[in-house]
Amino acid sequence: MEKLGKQTIKFDTPPTILECASIVGPKESEGPLAKYFDQCLEDEFWGEKTWEKAESKIIKETIHAAISKSGVPAEKIDCSFAGDLLNQCISSSFALRDSNVPFFGVFGACSTFVESLSLGAICTESFAKHVLCATSSHFCSAEKQFRFPLELGNQRPPTAQWTVTGSGAAVLSKSGTGPFITHITPGKIVDMGIKDANNMGAAMAPAFVDTLLTHFKDTGRTPNYYDAIISGDLGHIGKEIAIDIAKSQGYNIKSNYNDCGVLIFDKNKQDTHSGGSGCGCCGSVFSGYFFKQLKSKKIKRLLLIATGALMNSTSSQQGESIPGIAHAISIEI
Question: What pLDDT is recorded for position 169?
Fold first, then answer.
């Protein structure tokens, strides 16, 4: 590994993303990316008694699917990185408790998928031949924990995003033919004082731009180097803010930039307000859609920057602002 500039790591032996899998819920199954997911569920419970148990089942089955598709026996997985939005990451830990695979629980809010891929890539440069990375989220469990019980029927403002019910998982390998993770740019916390928990796009957009610009400065690359620059889940409002901030810093990303939270839902037909969010948003959209675009070489250079709002219900109730984080990985054929 080689450190470039301030924050970026370049891999001497870039790990291959061997295979991916994704499972999503009913609302996501009605969105424009439905055909790209491995499995689309008909209800939020999936035969379980609680939403939390359902979420854990979703990530568990997504992990099994990714391992099965990769052709790597489960006992050959050297370690796993996984996380979710629930307290103490119970979806991930309960999903992997019978796996017999060394487990690192990771929390970066909605940035967790790229954080997991970044840490997994570092492991393949050192001791690991195969690494599992996964995340999940669930609309009902997240609303219950972070906002209000669904039974209250609270009205959501236009700035609010819809937490994706879904999971994405990837198996990384020390060897392979690509797509390769060639660089990672870990993000730093950026807090601009936003306190509205129903406008997380505005809270996370500055962190996205900070990591984006750092990546360009560290690598000497420009926006047009990439076929696509994709943020994790800024949604419609956060996406426009990010475009404006980047432009004010001399970087025009409008032509090749999009957002997972924008892509996963049809804004006009599905009433998701500002779009999707949650650990499962970036995880399922990359694992379902963008991985296939890379494998078919429709996209050859992708900069994936997952964003996260580092808050919880207690910090919001105590009037704290919402710190943002964004982690970036460069994926190339």
Answer: 98
